[in-house]
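Cross-posting from the chemistry board since nobody answered there.

I work mostly on the small-molecule side, so proteins are not my area. We synthesized magnesium ion and want a rough idea of how it might sit in this target. Sequence and SMILES are below. Is it possible to get a predicted 3D structure of the two together?
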Amino acid sequence: MIRKTGSYKTWKAGGETIEAFIPLPLPPRNPTLSIDGKLGEKHQAAMAALGRLQTASTMVPSPNWFLYGYVRKEAVVSSQIEGTESTLEDVVVFELNRQAKDVADVTEVCNYIDALNYARDQMNSPNGLPICTRLICNVHERLMRGSRGQEKQPGRIRTSQNWIGGTRPGNAKFVPPPPESVPELLASLDKWIHSSDQLPLLIKIGLAHVQFETIHPFLDGNGRVGRLLITLLTEFWKLLDGPFLYLSLGFKRHRQEYYRALDAVRTEGDWEAWLDFYLDCAIESAEDGTSTAKQLFKLVNDDRRKFAESEHANLAAMRLFERLPEQPMITALKTAEILHCTKPTATKAIESLVKADILVEITGRLRDRIYAYRKYLDVLGQDTLPIASDS
Ligand SMILES: Nc1ncnc2c1ncn2[C@@H]1O[C@H](COP(=O)(O)OP(=O)(O)OP(=O)(O)O)[C@@H](O)[C@H]1O
Ligand SMILES: [Mg+2]
């Protein structure tokens, strides 16, 4: 064991011993963390990768359009970890016409987007909530809205014992703290997050994530809220200008390693191994984001130039083209609305973009047609289809 990170409260139930883990408050002590040597180098590499992502995300003409797509991508991936099967296209279609094969699945993804937007509005407005337990509860409430999450007590800190793995606390892989300890543990996590600690902020975020998962304050949705916390804190502390750091893809790709690293913090006090894994995921995610931003930037620039030079170019279509990154699927009605034009003008603009191979019709229907900027969605959707984990 490297260090002690908590203690167990044990009791007997039905002839079995149950051991609920109560973590010590952050930061790690005895020994304290030292961010030097290999870990220091990795931290620097991660900060450099974040710097490149920052540059790439401001390179695009409007930060909003990267934000639009990227947030949806993360929402899809994070929800897929939980078992949701919606694709990026399902989500974009649903936002357009409220129709989906599996409404419950898509609702879960849309809830994630809504929860993220809510939290960002709060923390970026002068009278809003900072990142604190109340904000986290409100985020959870939004995340769990709808039929599936209802019995999971949306927005409420649990008042019963939960467990991870196994069929009951007695045979579980991990039993989080007993409910009576949860409010105090959350308060202490809150306090530490806002304390002036000597640790680098990116490291603090990684520690906070584990502590949050170990407390496991909700009956469900702890993974999703804990991953959102990472994204929100990187923006809150201005490591990035927007909510662009998403670890869901990495945690999903390396799921077994992720769980192992979480376990090792509790059982071995091995914060270093966790940080090593977490920083690797941060690097992977930042590089993925940088490459996505560059590809999108290039695609939009190339298409804009080709379209402007083509025989199909006209003003309404050019204006519509500029809106596509934030609205990668459209209908004639939607186009009329965003361009403030008549439906025939909208239809004509769409047709020009179809002829130029920028938009494609995706329903095969004659009415209520939907047009997608498919190449754009393809770049954005890379890696969002369910993929097997590494081990
Ligand atoms: N051994 C462990 N120790 C601490 N936390 C763990 C452990 N195993 C899993 N977890 C955390 O619990 C989360 C799952 O909890 P929960 O089901 O409440 O969240 P979710 O959002 O519904 O699920 P998911 O994270 O799978 O999308 C995992 O994402 C992980 O962060
Ligand atoms: Mg769950």
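Reply from a structural biologist on the board:
Welcome over. Reading the output above for you: The chain has two domains: 6-292, 310-379. Residues 81-82, 164, 173-174, 213-214, 220-224, 226, 259, 262-263 surround adenosine-5'-triphosphate (ligand 1) (CB under 6 Å). Happy to explain the token format if needed.
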